[in-house]
Amino acid sequence: MSNTTYDNFFIKLTNAFLQYLRENRGILIGLVVLCIIISLMNPDFLSTNNIMNVLRQTSTNMYLAIAMTMVIILGGIDLSVGSIIAVTGVVTTMLIAVAGFPIWLAVALGIFVGMLFGSFNGYVSATTIIPPFIITLATMNIARGAAYVVTDGKPVRVMDDSFNFIGSGYIGPVPMQVIYLLFFLIIAYIIMNKTKLGRYMYAVGGNSEAAKFSGINIKKVKLFAYTFSGFMAGVAGVVLSARMFSGQPTAGDMAELDAIAAVVLGGTSMTGGRGKIGGTVIGALIIGVLSNGLNLMGVSSFWQYIVKGVVILVAVYADVFKKKN
Predict the structure, then answer these.
(1) Is GTP-binding tagged as a keyword (predicted)?
(2) Please, which pLDDT band fits residue 16 given cuts at 50, 70 and 90?
(3) Of 232, 194, 223, which Cα lies nearest the Cα of 74?
(4) pLDDT in tens, 100-125
C-alpha cells in the first residue's frame, strides 16, 4: 500500500469515526457518565476482569439487537428471539448428548431451527396483514412451548470441551463471544451501509407504499430481516448453551426486551425508517453496564426490571420528542 493510499484510508477512517461520535454524542455521554457513577460507587467496575465480563454478558444481547435493529427499521418487531434462544439451545444439546451428532452438525442444525422460526415470522409478515407484534408473539409462545415439550422442562447437559469452548473459550484475553460479535457487527455494517438491501430496508421502513412503487420487493426484504433475526437468535442460543454447559428451556427469558431496549436507546425509531447499527452497540453497552453496575451494588433483580423499564420509556419519549422538534 502506497503512502498516498494509506493516508487517504486513514483520513476516511478518521472522518467516519468523528461522524460516528457526532451522531451518537448524546448516548455516548450517557454511557460515559453511567460508567463514571458506577466506578465511583464500586471501583471493581473498572477492573479488567469485570470489563471482559461486561463484554461477554453484553454480547448475547448484541447478537439479538443487531438483527432487531434491521427489523425495527423496517417498521416491525420480533418478540420471539428470546424463545428461539431456548429452542435452538435445547435442540443443539439434545443432538449432541442424546442423538450423538458431531458438534459442528448439531450447531448448524440448531442455528437452522432458529432460521426456520425467523423465516416463518418473515413469510407471515410479508404475505398477510397480521401485525408483526401478533405474529412474533405467537411464535414466542410456540418456540418456548417446544423447548419445554422436547426436554420435559429439564436441562440437557453437555460436558464436551469442544462444545463448551464455543461459549466459554478465550483467544488470548478475549472471550469467544466477543470475537463472534465483532464478526457479525462487520457483516451487519456492510449490509446496512454498503448494499442495496440495506437501502431497501430504510426505504420500506420510511414509506412502504413508495418503496413498493419504486420496484422494491418488500416481501423479500422482510423475509431476509426476520430470517436474519432468527439466525442471530440461533447463534445466541448455541453460544449461551455452550457457556452454561447445557440447553435450558428457560434460557432467553425476556431477552427480547433487552434487545429492543438496546435498539431504542441507540436511536432507532420504533416507527421505522431510521436507525444505525453503531447506535445499537452503544445502547446495548448501556444496558449491559447498567445491569452489571446494579449487580455490583447488590441491587435486587426485581428493582433492575423497574430500572430497565424506566430507561426504555425515557428512550422512546426522547425519540418522539426529537421527531416533534
Answers:
(1) no
(2) confident
(3) 223
(4) 899 999 999 999 999 999 999 999 99
Per-residue model confidence as pLDDT tens digits over 264-277:
888 888 888 888 89
Task: State the cell numbers at 154.
Answer: 429439564
Identify the three-state secondary structure at position 156.
strand
Three-class SS string for the chain? CCHHHHHHHHHHHHHHHHHHHHHCHHHHHHHHHHHHHHHHHCHHHHCHHHHHHHHHHHHHHHHHHHHHHHHHHCCCCCCCHHHHHHHHHHHHHHHHHCCCCCHHHHHHHHHHHHHHHHHHHHHHHHHCCCCHHHHHHHHHHHHHHHHHHHHCCCCEECCCHHHHHHHHCEECCEEHHHHHHHHHHHHHHHHHHHCHHHHHHHHHHHCHHHHHHCCCCHHHHHHHHHHHHHHHHHHHHHHHHHHHCEECCCCCCCHHHHHHHHHHHCCCCCCCCCCCHHHHHHHHHHHHHHHHHHHHCCCCHHHHHHHHHHHHHHHHHHHHHHHHC
Residue 87: φ, ψ to 5°: -70, -35
Tell me what pLDDT residue 85 has: 97
Cell of 75: 417498521
CA distance 305 to 245: 26
| Mean pLDDT value of segment 129-149 | 96
Record the pTM: 0.90
Domain ranges of the chain: 62-291+311-318
